[in-house]
Amino acid sequence: MLIIGENIHIIAPKIKEAITNRDTAYLQKAALVQWKAGAQVIDLNIGPQKKLGVEIMEWAVEAVQDAIPDVTLSLDTTNAAAIEAGLKKCKKQAFINSTSAEEDRMAAAGPLAAKYGANIIALTMTKSGIPVGAEERFGIAMELLIPGLTGHGVPIENIYFDPLVLTVAGSQEFVPNAVETIRLMKLWDPPLNTVVGLSNVSNQVPNENRGLINRTYMVMLMAAGLDSAIADPLDKELMRFIRIVEKRDDSTGVGRVLLHLFDTTQTMEPFDPSVVDMKDEEQVGIYKTVRILRNEIIFADSYLKM
Length: 306
Hints:
By secondary structure, the chain is α/β, with parallel strands linked by helices. It has one domain: Dihydropteroate synthase-like (TIM Barrel, Alpha-Beta Barrel), CATH 3.20.20. The chain is built from twelve helices and eight strands. Helix 6 (134-151) crosses helix 8 (175-187).
């Protein structure tokens, strides 16, 4: 699983302050701690930055590469000039984060991805928004994103399709659809590269429940064939769940529950609650979360206490 570290984000007050003050040491520390925790790519979300985007992106790329010479970077801004400035500085194949299926956005980002050999994250949405159905999202990839981006010279193997995860808080009935969109993308020949913004599934959820929802959903996404996730590598429990699945580690009760979730999601079969030790709080929490994510029971902030 390719983890794109999400923690350098303009919305975080300390990151915003570091960008404003060009605090190189702080930015490097924020990147290095993610790298050491297992992120293979570091996302640099500098915001729109209409006036200073080029300067900021050049500074950010140079700062992180000085701290981690072998790093792969994801350049995250809607400022095309800043993206190009960053791509010129990148020492390794970078990611452009992102484009939608709108023609003007593909026309801005596509040629840059082609010129610099970058990967590009392609969102399965149009100007009308995010369709709710898996088939519709897959259709956007096939009918708009692939012809649009390859038409600008981007090889299909450099496109990472994002089926757009929605939150259980308000959009619960649509949460399984990202899993099913990935499943459809992996049935294509050749299978399409996929990526998600993992934490979106727990937006507007109380902080104490977000991690469990994120990491349980990750197992389901992996079962459908997910290749990469924009996620928090500092979430040790998330990284533990990923390792359990990748190593097929059934040496613990939690491991057996996670592998059962993986296998039943992969084969589209019901989850068997008999595999859960109902005296084990962690296993019960996972089971309750599975039922929420599969839309079997209605989400509430207090669902773990029910």
